[in-house]
Amino acid sequence: MVQSSVARSSAATAARRACENPVMPAPVAIPAEITAALRGARFVAVLTGAGVSAESGVPTFRDAQQGLWARFDPRELATPSAFARNPKRVWDWYAMRREMVGGVAPNPAHVALAALERRVPEFLLITQNVDGLHQRAGSERVTELHGNIARVKCSREGTPVATWKDADDELPPRCPACGAFLRPDVVWFEELLPAEPLAKAEDAARRCNVLLVVGTSAEVYPAAALPDYARRGGACVIEINPNETPLTADADYSLRGPAGVVLPALLQATFPAKGYGG
Ligand code: BJW
In what order do the strands lie in the sheet containing 253-255? Predict the structure, then answer.
């Protein structure tokens, strides 16, 4: 873990103080300390994971062993070695997910986060998701840590490729420039995250006054290190997840419940208005 060099600002101190008495209320009962922290924050950052899209019908990686994805193990498929072993299998898995994502809509959690962005002076939404649902809900300040499933690139040179055709039953389509297989523009295990989005995310985690951590198992690094950066920088860290995670013990608050229920309630309690999607 990296020690933050950012001094605690007065806004961060106020946010931190507002978080000093952790309580674990029912999912939609939002403690006053949390609304105070959000209202007083100059900079709010949000880290999201697959759970934020679950209520849109996109299976999380943990759920992926059920239903439609039962034949696939994401830990086996989201790796460069899986692609090297069986490129067509990996290509098809992403093609199936691309189609699925195209057929679903943002849910109240995405809508509430887009509304939050418009309510605070400085904001960054850091997502591990590759589904583009935050942008479709209207979020603008988004940094994608693990790429985007809608994009495709050359597996040899990394060049983005705008259009492609699935012409072969046995193999993925090929790069028009060099003939290598095309692959999804996402980050697999053992691959480096894109430098600029990661730097933006780390900077936001260190400087924010409040970090919301929504719908992630908080197990995949380097994203899983961001809450620690935020805490060391003096931010109030609030987890929203129906289940406990490795972060829970260190978070200032854990709001237990689905993001599509908790986030609209959080917005409504903090900045009362209509249209938070709940
Ligand atoms: C709800 C809900 C509802 C359900 N509402 N919530 C130790 C230290 C540092 C690094 C490592 C380490 N050991 C190993 C590593 C390396 C590795 C890693 O972290 N492995 C861990 C398993 C330990 N990391 C990497 O390899 C990364 N690269 C890297 O570190 O480079 C340096 C390096 C190079 C070489 C060797 C070693 C290091 C790259 C990570 C890339 C991850 N890629 C994927 C696939 C993306 C493309 C795709 O979509 O297919 O990213 S894997 C998968 O995990 C995906 C996700 O973004 C990511 C995180 O998962 P997420 O989002 O948290 O989903 P789930 O399913 O795990 O959890 C869902 C949560 O939602 C649950 O908590 C539910 O309770 C909750 N939920 N319904 C709210 N309604």
Answer: 142-144, 122-127, 43-48, 210-214, 236-240, 253-255
1-58+106-146+193-273 fold: Rossmann fold (3.40.50)
Indicate the helix (H) or strand (E) that contains 37.
helix 32-40
Secondary structure of residue 152 in the 3-state scheme: strand
How do residues 46-98 score in pLDDT, each as one tens digit? Answer: 999 999 999 999 989 877 666 555 667 777 789 999 999 999 999 999 999 99
Look up the CATH superfamily of 61-103+151-186.
SIR2/SIRT2 'Small Domain' (3.30.1600.10)
Q: Do domains 1-58+106-146+193-273 and 61-103+151-186 have the same CATH topology?
A: no
Nearest CA to ligand 1 atom 4: 51
Q: How far is CA 207 from the centre of its chain?
A: 18
pTM over 0.85: yes
* Closest CA to ligand 1's atom 21: 220
Q: Which of these is catalytic: 16, 146, 174, 206?
A: 146
